[in-house]
Amino acid sequence: MMIAEKMVRGRKVEILILLQLLVSAMVATVAYGANVTYDHRALVVDGKRRVLISGSIHYPRSTPEMWPDLVQKSKDGGLDVIETYVFWNVHEPEKNQYNFEGRYDLVKFVKLVAEAGLYVHLRIGPYVCAEWNYGGFPLWLHFIPGIKFRTDNEPFRAEMQRFTAKIVDMMKQEKLYSSQGGPIILSQIENEYGNIDSAYGLAGKNYMKWSASMAVSLDTGVPWVMCQQADAPDPIINTCNGFYCDQFTPNSNKKPKMWTENWSGWFSSFGEPLPYRPVEDLAFAVARFFQRGGTFQNYYMYHGGTNFGRSTGGPFITTSYDYDAPIDEYGLLRQPKWGHLRDLHKAIKLCEDALVATDPTITSLGSNLEASVYKTASGSCAAFLANIGTHSDATVAFNGNTYHLPAWSVSILPDCKNVVFNTAKINSATESETFARQSLKPDADSSGDLGSQWSYIKEPVGISKAGAFVKPGLLEQINTTADKSDYLWYSLSMDIKGDEPFLDDGSKSVLHIESLGHVLHVFINGELAGSATGKPRVSLAIPISLVPGKNTIALLSVTVGLQNYGAFFDLTGAGITGPVILKNGNSGSTIDLSSKQWTYQVGLKGEDTGLSTGDSSEWVSESPLPTKQPLIWYKTTFDAPAGSDPVAIDFTGAGKGMAWVNGESIGRFWPTNIARDSGCTDSCDYRGSYRSNKCLKNCGKPSQSL
Ligand code: GAL
Questions:
Q1: Range of the domain at 241
Q2: Is 228 among the domain residues?
Q3: Cβ of 240 below 6 Å from ligand 1
Q4: How far apart are the C-alpha atoms of 579 and 598, rounded to whole Å?
Q5: Residue-wise pLDDT tens digits, 87-129
Q6: How far is the CA of 129 from the centre of ligand 1 (A)?
Q7: Of 159, 190, 261, 514, which is the active-site residue?
Q8: Least enclosed by CB within 10 Å: which of 167, 373, 552, 564?
Q9: Is residue 33 a part of any domain in this protein?
Q10: Which of 487-501, 522-536, 594-608, 658-672 has the lowest mean pLDDT?
């Protein structure tokens, strides 16, 4: 069932099914009970320095049914560690009311990773950024009197400590820390605070130090990290995030060089092309990191997944969090990315003993050419040869042999002699799995038809439900809705007398509206008069027609994911904060409507009457269905495709809205939001520094249609 604003319901709403069979086999369980410490070279697990390859999988971004297969594919891809954030707002949607069920079953997720024999890095945050609604903070936090987020503020510290301790206690009770025999070898407190702490001045520094000591006091028995926090106090390890971290050095020679976020691609936004990161460059970045002394590297993301429901941050971040990751949104291997990285991991693991034994000896082999050699006391040797030039391939002499090095590549020599892997040479499979289609069209006659009985209910325009209230002036949206819904109605009735200038030529009256976003729809006397979207502001000026007597201006303001990043991100407002001004083009008369008595309604009627779960007797079945309608709900039923393969719905032909399957929101859709039609290439040159807008695809197409 779907709800849509301005939705042109699909002639082409189709359900897609994957034909390939997904095999999920669990492999032998590994025993833990490890003591985890660190020194200047590496994390030390049970007395042994380790080279660890890690990948991010955020448990609420897939279903528990998918988890075993995702973890197995991670293991097969050569990962040792699964990293996840902990998402406070899904676990504590109301203060002191916790939810650890279904997709939020953190304990189950951690146990599944353990069963596969992998370690866990638990990044508690509890600020997580992550393109997650409000950076992971529950909205109720904002309403605590006197609270200021992420700074030296007593109410905030109390809540942050309470939640962090709750998670730590939960993990301890289940014996999930490595020190207790569990898989968790590492934890993170805060997230990239160092990128923005200067905005908080001295209070920010105090908060950072408090966070560190609060975390340490929770006594997990495993190390804590802070990412992008150059001044992280001992014993917290400061770690690097970025597209490259080979130049990073930790803030003490007692700490290992660790990379907590190697961005395997990038997130996507509605209305933008899709970023992708060529695997040759990703592999190059990883190899360079290990070449220059790194011993722990995490892919952010290894599997990105889906921002179900209203979980996406923003504004405007897509429901898909595919991220161009090695495992795609649906849990399918993305090739050649997954395979090439698996080959890279094997090569790095062949070097592990030498890598952890010493710091590298780095020598220049010429301009842009570099060799690193690692040697153990017993004489085993591993080498990395790099050409960091962006254009010219090179031939280098090393240890009495010659080696060909393509531009922007690293060769790995686990015995200092034979090249087992070069980051620019792909030998793995190149074909990814794809979807097969089955129709959900009402008029489909093919035998692949999955369902056809569609019905609809029109959502009323303007104020329609109990609980509406009147306030003078224009209210900021998030403070008004507490983010219980994307939708807030602002409605105003006004009497226009027969002699007022706004009537002398209706088409010359213009309504000016200033909003903080994210989407605005204007209805005059029940009819849609105009729409706009934008950030950080929406400005709209539309000609309107008024009638003598009573007129209703109903403005629907819609959020599309709350801000998740930046200093004071939590204070970013939304909605129609004004001014709202009516102007007459001929006479120049204006009326400022901003401070009038506006009537407010939080959410849509259908959201309250349970339309999102499908229970209503008011559904109308009619053929053909009304299309190109603002504000309408549609529903259909169909037999689920057989098997357990991933299923997606193609929303091509729909407008903007949200979709539920069996009562569960699968997220927002907006296929009419088309990416610009230039600046994309399918064959991006991997050579040279990558940035998130370097390699784009899908120009001129919907940013997301599945
Ligand atoms: C980092 C942040 C992550 C994520 C990433 C971009 O700065 O730590 O949570 O937001 O950027 O995907």
A1: 50-422
A2: yes
A3: no
A4: 13
A5: 999 999 999 999 999 999 999 999 999 999 999 999 999 999 9
A6: 6
A7: 261
A8: 552
A9: no
A10: 487-501
